[in-house]
Amino acid sequence: MNLSYCFTYPSVPESEDRMLDEIGDLLRQWQLPENLWHRVMLVVSEGYTNSFLHGNCKNADKLIKIYLVLNETDLIVDIYDEGNEQESLNKIKNRKPADLLGENGRGVDLMMRYADDIRFERGEKGGLKVTVRFNRDNKKEIRI
Amino acid sequence: MEIKQREHGNIAILDLNGRLDLASGAMLKEHIKKLFEKNITSVHLNLAKVEFINSSGLGSLVSIMKETRLAKGRFTLSNLANYVQEIFDITQLSHIFEIFRTEEEALASYQAVPAN
Predict the structure, then answer these.
(1) Residue A143 domain-assigned?
(2) B55-70 helix and A34-50 helix, angle to the nearest 10 degrees
(3) Size of interface A-B (CB pairs under 8 A)
(4) Cβ contact (<8 Å) for A106 and B95?
(5) pTM above threshold 0.90
(6) Residues with Cβ < 8 Å from A95, sequence gap 6 or more?
(7) DSSP secondary-structure letter at B94?
(8) Fewer CB atoms < 10 Å away: N or C end of chain A?
(9) Chain segment A85-144, per-residue pLDDT in tens
(10) CB-based contact, A136 to chain B, within 8 Å
(11) Domain span including residue A121
């Protein structure tokens, strides 16, 4: 069994709500356990926000693509932007621990915390591709 | 996200309903900026109906907390869902916010520790 779906969004503020609604609904259709649903929503949201702010720099002409694949063992999500992959990778590599009173800098750490595996690499059109994998049997907890 | 405002003395109580993310965080900051313009600097957020928060939502709350401190006011939170509380805990933000189990407990604290 392999289920897959692709969503594409322009980099405009209104896309965020649409993305969370659509992906939230898809994950409900796929009947993921509540615990996993919350983890995926948070991680995808963080990946999307990084693509919107740092990859595509809010350029409405640039797209964010999110591919989801559900198989017997895993849920795999690929998030693509159309920014500069090298700049994005440098920002991720050189990031410092979030300042407690800082307003930014917590997203990648949250993604690493809640995904079972995460990879950053060059994607389509020179942008960044972020792949996150969730093991369906992993009981990694999130309080719900 | 929907924001409903009530008042308790000179404290503005905001009931948030929905997701606290990049867009709604900006909306909340704008709402609170308008309160500051009316010299209301003590703000309580009831998060009972916040179903989702991410790092952008957290960032907006940190920004509001800093603005409130600068204005010599207070900024309190209550009724966090387990999921939301967990995000505060793992980012260690629960150490720097005034978080109460219930709205009543938060409002009672204003009598014990009023804003400057």
Answers:
(1) no
(2) 70
(3) 67
(4) no
(5) yes
(6) A105, A108
(7) G
(8) N
(9) 999 999 888 888 889 999 999 999 999 999 999 999 998 778 999 999 999 987 666 665
(10) no
(11) 3-135
A134 — phi, psi (to 5°)? Answer: -120, 125
In Å, the largest CA–CA distance within chain A is: 46
Can you tell me whether residue A78 is helix, strand or coil?
strand
When divided into structural domains, chain A yields a total of 1
Chain B CB contacts of A100 under 8 Å are 92-93, 95-96
Fold annotation for B2-112: Transcription Regulator spoIIAA (3.30.750)
Block residue for tokens 């704008």: B30
Displacement of CA B108 from its chain's centroid (Å): 16
Interface confidence, given as ipTM, is 0.90
Q: If you search the block for the tokens 């969503």, which residue do you land on?
A: A7
H-helix or E-strand containing B7? Answer: strand B2-8
HSE, side-chain direction, 13 A CA sphere, residue A72? 1
